[in-house]
Design brief:
By secondary structure, the chain is mainly α. The protein has six helices and no strands. α1 (2-26) runs antiparallel to α4 (60-93), α2 packs antiparallel against α3 and α5 crosses α6 (141-173).
């Protein structure tokens, strides 16, 4: 029964994504209007730019953008709910099956903590950083969050490379 629900929800999301994709290509382009709105925001602070873009993106392009965000969140929520449900059902049937997911969750939490610790969140001294609304050398939470995401990517990439090397070397010893 659960497989049928997942399949139906998957087709609904896929259909909605197809409709949004067709609308994106059939609707008249709003690029000149959006570019004019962005040009009007030149020199504004970060918060003013966010409000200006929000006001400018209320036409079909904004609808498509928000619909895509909602679909992405819906897909992520469905994945989490059905995967956690599957782990719980399997865990009830066989408690030993919870060991590997628990190790994976602990590893992810450790990587997130290490990444957060490595991120400093200080605005760099680069050309144009003031245009983005930042003062070079100051600490910002959104920069720290972006740096933590980058560190997580670096750590995951290094772990993947190490796993590939380990797999190749372990085959040589067999």
């Amino acid at each position: 029964m659960l497989e049928k629900v997942v399949k139906i929800l998957g087709w609904v999301v896929l259909g909605a994504a197809a409709v949004i994709s067709v609308l994106f290509f059939l609707l008249p382009g709003e690029a000149p209007e959006m570019q004019a709105a962005m040009d009007a925001l030149d020199g504004a602070t970060g918060a003013e730019k966010i409000e200006g873009v929000d006001a400018a993106a209320t036409n079909w392009g904004g609808f498509i953008m928000y619909a895509c965000e909602i679909l992405a969140l819906l897909c992520a929520a469905m994945f989490v709910v059905f995967e956690i449900g599957g782990v719980i059902v399997d865990g009830i049937a066989s408690p030993k099956s919870l060991i590997k997911p628990a190790i994976a969750i602990v590893a992810i939490v450790v990587v997130v903590i290490i990444s957060w610790a490595l991120a400093d969140g200080i605005a760099p001294h680069t050309i144009g950083i003031q245009k983005a609304g930042y003062t070079p050398g100051d600490m910002y939470g959104d920069i720290k969050l972006a740096e933590a995401g980058l560190w997580m990517t670096y750590i995951a990439g290094a772990a993947a490379i190490l796993a590939l090397v380990y797999g190749a070397v372990s085959r040589l010893w067999k």
